[in-house]
Amino acid sequence: MSETPDLILSTSVAPHVRLLTLNRTSKRNALSNQLIVELGAILRRAAIDEDVRCVVLCGSDAFFSAGADIKEMRERGFEAIDNSARRSAWGDVANFPKPLIAAVEGICFGGGHELALLADIVIAGEGAVFGQPEINIGILPGDGATQRLTRVAGKSLAMLMILSGQSITARSAMQAGLVAEVVESGRAQRRALEIADLIAQKPPRSAELAKAAVLAAFQTTLDAGLEFERQAIRHAFSTADQTEGMNAFFDKRPPNYRGK
């Protein structure tokens, strides 16, 4: 049964920028199956919407997300977090081709932290707290943290967070490379939107290629990643936006990128 019609609020807040807000605040933005499926569907549409060049994902001031829905797990067991619809939706998030920024305030635990790990840039409020507390209820992360957290923050910190359930502060998360910037509490969304607006003014095809090239560093060998980069820049040179960008540079005028 559907719980509410809008678990994700989608708003166009600036030219080419989409703001997605987790809207399950009564449940601390717990990532129910319905919420994840709804998020995946929105990102699938945004991926092919030429008007969207960058997406910002946020929660509330108190909770980005407290994690997966424990009530669903108690009722449905393993199937609650391992079913075809949920897997497909997580894939939509992981494979979203455009820049994705997470604005994190407050609690960012479990599945919520795993969602933030899929963002390309994370902006955190000073009071944000990050953790993987699944071991406290007899399980372990199941939406990617054992792999992604380890790749980003290293084995030792990943082991500490996952084996002890201990959380870390926003400042510690930035030192570990999980967060790009820490700002005053309550300003994460504003700063994320500023960055999104800056990115949205860049040539969108080049931004997508650059994102894919950086992600290749986590997924391939160095030689394979360098070859991916060469092919990506080769493709960028074939775009109309590349011609426009260089012409604008020499003409000393702002470029007009059209995503072509």
UniProtKB/TrEMBL annotation:
<dbReference type="InterPro" id="IPR014748">
    <property type="entry name" value="Enoyl-CoA_hydra_C"/>
</dbReference>
<dbReference type="InterPro" id="IPR001753">
    <property type="entry name" value="Enoyl-CoA_hydra/iso"/>
</dbReference>
<comment type="similarity">
    <text>Belongs to the enoyl-CoA hydratase/isomerase family.</text>
</comment>
<dbReference type="GO" id="GO:0006635">
    <property type="term" value="P:fatty acid beta-oxidation"/>
</dbReference>
<dbReference type="InterPro" id="IPR029045">
    <property type="entry name" value="ClpP/crotonase-like_dom_sf"/>
</dbReference>
<keyword id="KW-0456">Lyase</keyword>
<dbReference type="GO" id="GO:0016836">
    <property type="term" value="F:hydro-lyase activity"/>
</dbReference>
<protein>
    <submittedName>
        <fullName>Enoyl-CoA hydratase</fullName>
    </submittedName>
</protein>
<dbReference type="InterPro" id="IPR018376">
    <property type="entry name" value="Enoyl-CoA_hyd/isom_CS"/>
</dbReference>
<dbReference type="Pfam" id="PF00378">
    <property type="entry name" value="ECH_1"/>
</dbReference>
